[in-house]
């Protein structure tokens, strides 16, 4: 079965797709105690984890094992992880789940996250590893093998069986006859990762901007908001803290890219990058003054810092394949900084260099943000916005096909949803990408939105092309049928792939070297943003071998090609890059409303459509099921020669 046949038969459930971290689950509990630091241990001890574990051991021959420090992310300061992650993973190379869990204390702290509820009580998300007991029957092992998560290694994965055990059973009975309710369970979802690609990735690879492109002649490539009201034109997000939860390069890579693009005594070819890097803080006290940024760089588990990590990406032929995208979060941050010059921006690395993170990484970051918004902490009474240019979990319609059984589908996202709800209840506005899986090889037609954008508490953002009334072909819908929480804005369109030029053909606008074996691109409609990496991913990944999903046939001769210049600008398209446009807009709205302002997702959408924000009525895109807030950038260029061969002439398309 070839790639196309696989997509027709399996959709987003192709064999090379994995959706969760094997043998890891999350359980959601409630407690009547408030979520104070002193209450964490009493709360954990009240959850009856030992009774629940005994039930699993006796009936399913699987035991819960607490997360350890090796299962969670940790802050990294300085350059302990090297100048650049492009040379490979920097974590230790121990087993994929990290720790030797040995003697287990189920109430240990790692992987346990407490959030407040509106009534002053607690909701607790607890993550565990799953391990078979020595007496696991062969029938259970066979069942787990049949429920394999993608076509990865030979590890027997018990996730589906145990998640189903929780979500199809209301109570368990202890030997003493006491009935204990079981909490909803979910896998430790990846951001849709696969061994060789992802659902929920950028619509296409980034591509270099020519050094003499007039769009970046000033050292900036401003995004214009032509319909912005006069009241908001003078706002810049001052007083608002914007969190970007995403990938991020190392401090060394950022500083080197800024220096090369803005050499002493030379032309300042990327002032936006220079603005963000000058005064940037990568460690405590994280007090960078705008326009500089704060970066909380975190180290992941050994697997996610290695070359065996799940990956994310698509080529120009819409095929799933994984490439390094350290600059995804930087690109997002640059858009926010361009449109909200006064906002305090904190970038938190919760996705690895391949654009992959886990639910516990996201929930851990949200717990810290919510904690800082509590009484007596630095963000209490302040306006907070969280940008999530990511997706997580499969489509609801695919959960059953993956083998999950449940009384309510909400159980399979419950821990993630409760963390989102708690952050919103604390006063944060969350803006999330709708997703880029529509009209793909796997998904015919318009779908979506993906989660977390489909949670009603979240502002969901879809993408339109340079023609503001036309939906980007890849963009998922901004809004589901249930709630009006969606908006659309400029995110570009997938470029057209061009085969390597011959002696009889001219090189295209983007012509990676060596040009005789690397696919180029034309018809470029991408957002122009900051890009610090010295290399770019190939544009043609080739077809998956139908007999070996770790092998590809054809495609470009090199996985990466050198940047043709050092200006640190790139084209990139996707709902990931429409999302920060709306985040920056909402930061201005929060500034206008005053310190500590809060808005629900529905209030945000209603306000954007009102005269408070828009100077004219907004066009409603029926395909995306959302109004379109206009945003535009300098028109892309067509070059007589490719950037990689030193063109000095450019004309507007």
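^ Assign residues to that structure.
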């Amino acid at each position: 079965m070839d790639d196309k046949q696989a997509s027709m038969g399996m959709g987003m459930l192709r064999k090379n797709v994995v959706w969760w971290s094997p043998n890891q689950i999350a359980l959601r509990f409630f407690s009547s105690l408030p979520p104070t630091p002193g209450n964490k241990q009493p709360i954990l001890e009240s959850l009856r984890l030992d009774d629940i574990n005994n039930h699993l051991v006796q009936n399913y021959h699987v035991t819960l094992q607490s997360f350890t420090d090796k299962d969670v992310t940790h802050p990294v300061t300085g350059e302990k992880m090297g100048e650049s992650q492009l040379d490979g993973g920097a974590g230790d190379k121990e087993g994929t789940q990290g720790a030797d869990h040995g003697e287990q204390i189920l109430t240990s702290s790692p992987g346990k996250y407490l959030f407040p509820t509106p009534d002053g009580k607690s909701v607790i998300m607890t993550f565990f590893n799953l391990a078979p007991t020595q007496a696991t029957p062969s029938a259970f092992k066979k069942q787990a093998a049949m429920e394999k998560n993608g076509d990865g290694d030979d590890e027997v994965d018990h996730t589906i069986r145990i998640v189903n055990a929780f979500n199809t059973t209301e109570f368990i009975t202890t030997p003493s006859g006491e009935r204990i309710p079981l909490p909803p369970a979910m896998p430790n979802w990846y951001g849709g990762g696969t061994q060789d690609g992802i659902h929920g990735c950028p619509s296409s690879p980034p591509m270099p901007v020519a050094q003499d492109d007039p769009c970046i002649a000033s050292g900036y490539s401003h995004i214009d908001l032509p319909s912005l009201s006069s009241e908001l034109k003078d706002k810049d997000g001052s007083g608002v803290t914007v969190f970007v939860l995403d990938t991020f390069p190392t401090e060394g890579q950022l500083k080197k890219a800024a220096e090369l693009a803005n050499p002493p005594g030379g032309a300042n070819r990327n002032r936006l990058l220079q603005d963000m890097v000058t005064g940037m803080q990568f460690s405590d006290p994280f007090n960078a003054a705008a326009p500089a940024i704060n970066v909380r760089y975190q180290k992941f588990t050994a697997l996610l810092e290695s070359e065996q990590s799940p990956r994310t990406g698509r080529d120009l032929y819409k095929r799933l394949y994984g490439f390094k995208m350290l600059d995804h979060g930087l690109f997002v941050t640059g858009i926010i900084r361009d449109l909200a010059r006064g906002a305090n921006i904190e970038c938190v690395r919760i996705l690895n260099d391949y654009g992959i993170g886990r639910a516990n990484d996201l929930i851990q970051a949200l717990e810290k943000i919510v904690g800082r918004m509590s009484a007596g902490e630095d963000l209490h009474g302040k306006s907070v916005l969280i940008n999530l240019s990511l997706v997580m979990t499969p489509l609801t319609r695919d959960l059953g096909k993956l083998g999950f059984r449940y009384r309510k589908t909400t159980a399979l996202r419950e821990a993630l949803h409760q963390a989102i709800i708690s952050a919103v209840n604390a006063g944060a506005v969350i803006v999330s990408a709708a997703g880029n899986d529509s009209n793909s090889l796997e998904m015919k037609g318009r779908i979506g939105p993906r989660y977390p954008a489909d949670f009603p508490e979240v502002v969901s953002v879809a993408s339109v092309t340079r023609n503001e009334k036309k939906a980007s072909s890849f963009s998922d819908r901004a809004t589901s049928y249930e709630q009006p929480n969606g908006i659309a804005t400029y995110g570009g369109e997938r470029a057209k792939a061009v085969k390597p030029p011959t002696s009889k053909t001219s090189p295209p606008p983007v012509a990676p070297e060596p040009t005789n074996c690397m696919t180029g691109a034309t018809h470029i409609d991408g957002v122009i943003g900051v890009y610090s990496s010295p290399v770019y991913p190939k544009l043609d990944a080739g077809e998956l071998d139908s007999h070996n999903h770790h092998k590809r046939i054809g495609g470009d001769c090199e996985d990466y090609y050198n940047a043709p210049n050092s200006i640190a600008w790139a084209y990139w398209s996707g709902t990931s890059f429409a999302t920060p446009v709306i985040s920056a807009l909402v930061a201005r709205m929060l500034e206008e409303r005053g310190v500590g302002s809060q808005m629900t997702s529905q209030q945000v959408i209603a306000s954007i459509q009102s005269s408070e924000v828009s100077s004219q009525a907004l066009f409603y895109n029926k395909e995306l099921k959302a109004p379109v807030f206009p945003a535009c950038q300098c028109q892309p260029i067509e070059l007589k020669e490719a950037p990689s061969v030193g063109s000095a002439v450019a004309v507007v398309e």
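The CA atoms of residues 381 and 596 lie 5 Å apart.
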